[in-house]
Amino acid sequence: MTPDASVPDTLRQRLRQAGLRVTAPRLAVLEWLAEHPHATADQVATGVRGQLGSVSTQAVYDVLGACARAELVRRIEPAGHPARFETRTGDNHHHLVCRRCGRTEDVDCAVGAAPCLEPSDGKGFAVDEAEVVFWGLCPDCLVASPTTAAHHHEEGRA
Fold first, then answer.
1. How many independent structural domains does the chain possess?
2. What is the per-residue pLDDT across 57-89, written as a single tens digit (0 to 9) for each?
3. CA–CA distances in Å: residue 111 to residues 41, 115, 117
4. Residues with Cβ within 8 Å of residue 126, at least 6 apart in sequence
5. Would you say residue 148 lies in a domain?
6. CATH number, domain at 119?
């Protein structure tokens, strides 16, 4: 068995462990999303159609919702941008988001394993997740307009 052949088996097992039925759309969504993190639901639907042929956008939304509730998929919602989905879950990582194009990249916690789960004053909350988003311009957008990037940098200093 090749390593690629075991991917669907692993996904089937993860779906079953999460109490979800194994269906072709669920497998296709998880498989496609694993290769294309931070995709929007519409991007996932387009990618999955390339694998399965016909699948409705609503079916993809339903799969993403069920998988997010089962913690197989993480939904991130950067302000002013459409929700994005990824299969990297459970490690409390953060994101870099480009203000212009929306490119999103993973970034690990800056000071170790999930230190931001201990706020300076928890106000009695039982904190189980922290969401940190670093905003700026990605390298491509920086090159496209260096004057805008310099302006943003100067604003950050003020």
1. 2
2. 999 999 999 999 999 999 999 888 899 999 998
3. 32, 7, 12
4. none
5. yes
6. 3.30.1490.190
State which residues form the domain around 53. 3-76
Asked whether residue 138 is marked as a ligand-binding residue, the answer is yes
67 appears as a binding residue in the annotation: no
Q: What's the pLDDT at 112?
A: 60
User: Which residues make beta-bridge pairs with 97?
Assistant: 104, 135
pTM of the model: 0.78
Confidence of residue 154 (pLDDT cuts 50, 70, 90): very low
Q: Is residue 52 part of a domain?
A: yes
Averaged pLDDT, 41-60: 93
What is the C-alpha separation between 15 and 95, in angstroms, rounded? 26
Asked if residue 16 and residue 61 are part of one domain, the reply reads yes
The helix (run of H) or strand (run of E) holding residue 103 is none
**Pick from 58, 92, 98, 59: nearest CA to 78:** 98
Q: Which residues pair with 104 in a beta bridge?
A: 97
